[in-house]
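Input (structure):
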């Protein structure tokens, strides 16, 4: 009887790959493609951009970040990119479980010497959150908190709606996000070492803006961790737009 109920459940609610979200067999965790080939970031890693040092283009830019370091398990490409878009655009919040565990593995590997006071996430504007019903960054942060034993705190709000980051230049992305976040009333981050979670990092403008806010309120250091980073090619195209084809920030975050 139990087996029959399980089969009926799977018929109506099929099992999905924990990375990309495609339908898989009932005894699988990942689809064959994700099991055999995922765009993991190889060590050694540049802690400024999160890319493998062989793919790092930081020397081509003069932009500074307000966060101490940034890490990610994956590059934003292939099935990982598909999974992130499915997570936030096609209402598959369960994908945050596997993505969050992958982030947690990267945190344990790269931030093992750091004693964080708490983990938090990049907030969404209230109307965007209402439309979607969840914030994927919050779901990821809760998984990282549980996996790594770091206290979880919801401390930030996005106080104004911003333009979509997609197809904007790196400079315009930073201007767009500047001053968009603030601390919740009654929250104290003075002297705190914060682990900040989001889903994708392209130029780092969003993470820089949030980190700047946290430091303005007294945070000692901000370390970032995301599911995936965009592997920049030549940095920017002639028209100033990002040369990476990234589809992040469709949620106007």
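Output (sequence):
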């Amino acid at each position: 009887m139990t087996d029959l109920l399980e089969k009926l459940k799977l018929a109506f609610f099929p099992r999905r790959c924990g990375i990309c979200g495609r339908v898989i067999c009932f005894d699988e965790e990942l689809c064959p493609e994700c099991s055999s080939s995922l765009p993991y970031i190889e060590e050694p890693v540049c802690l400024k951009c999160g890319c493998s040092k062989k793919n790092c283009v930081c020397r081509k830019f003069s932009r500074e970040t307000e966060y101490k370091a940034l890490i990610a398990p994956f590059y934003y490409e292939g099935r990982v990119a598909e999974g992130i878009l499915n997570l936030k655009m096609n209402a598959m919040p369960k994908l945050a479980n596997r993505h969050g565990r992958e982030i947690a593995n990267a945190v344990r590997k790269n931030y093992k010497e750091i004693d964080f006071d708490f983990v938090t996430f990049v907030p969404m504007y209230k109307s965007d959150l209402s439309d979607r019903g969840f914030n994927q960054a919050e779901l990821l942060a809760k998984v990282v908190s549980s996996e790594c034993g770091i206290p979880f705190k919801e401390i930030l709000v996005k106080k104004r709606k911003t333009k979509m980051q997609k197809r904007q230049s790196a400079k315009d992305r930073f201007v767009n996000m500047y001053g968009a976040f603030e601390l919740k009333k009654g929250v104290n981050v003075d002297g705190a070492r914060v682990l900040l979670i989001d889903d994708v990092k392209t130029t780092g403008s969003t993470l820089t803006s949030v980190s700047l806010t946290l430091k303005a309120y007294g945070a000692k250091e901000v370390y970032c961790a995301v599911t995936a980073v965009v592997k920049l090619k030549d940095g920017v195209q002639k028209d100033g737009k990002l040369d990476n084809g990234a589809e992040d920030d469709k949620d106007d975050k």
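Notes: The first helix runs from residue 2 to 12. Confidence is low (pLDDT under 50) at residues 235-253.
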